[in-house]
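Q: My labmate handed me this sequence with no annotations at all. I'd like to see what the chain might look like in three dimensions before we decide whether it's worth expressing. Could you predict it?
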Amino acid sequence: MRDLLTAYPPLVRSAALVAVTYRGRTILGVITGFFPLLTMAVWLTVVAEAGPPAGWTTGDFLSYYAAATLLWNLSGDHVVWQWDADMRSGDLSVRLLRPVHPFHQYATSALGHRLVSLTMLAPALAIAALLVPGLDYPADPVRLAAVAGALILAYGVSLLMASTFALIGFWSTQTTNTWMLWWGLGSFTSGWVAPLALMPDWVRTAAAILPFRTTMGFPVELLMGRLDVRQTLYGFAVGLGWLAVFALLYRLTWRRGVRRYQAVAG
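A: Here is what I predict for the chain of 266 residues:
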């Protein structure tokens, strides 16, 4: 563990340098990161024409999707495509020869790229928060500490969930398609399509037990001050439970899958 912790900073720094080197791709990623704001624009149009839903104002939608934009950029699901590409090309063989497990190589790569994206995105959102009076987050030390913990949990669940699905590539060439199908289900129960408070009862019931809300809806709702102590503790319990589940699934799937792995140069 000590060696692993020592390896993380230089690996993250190396990934960040790669992201800075390929500036065009990074800028494109940042632009893509504003996608949740398009959903916000749709909701603001609905509010302007039909009036705000009960318990929600225009400022609430602004606050929700501004925070969701940050969460979108903290997602670890990008590792699915990197795993898939390396399995197809045989580059996973090179990663297996390195002293650090491939999982940590992909994790630090994703983290380095995300940090570069956030350094470009955060100032824009900070300026928006100053210029747009509707953005409002009830901040106090306890809440901010809880939000920080929720963000770490969100990234951990997202990364482990995506990495576990990536291992399907040991048995099938449809890894990314399977992930997109899973992610399509998650888009409704994570709070990405719309705040869960505005979704039907059955969607909110499913969201309360599925892992997707942990990756977006829970930290955003916590930041907006819409959760009481009991709801906050429940959200952390669900997230930690899924973190343990995906960690176990990843470990078991890796042990079986890596025995099947073959690569041919070409």
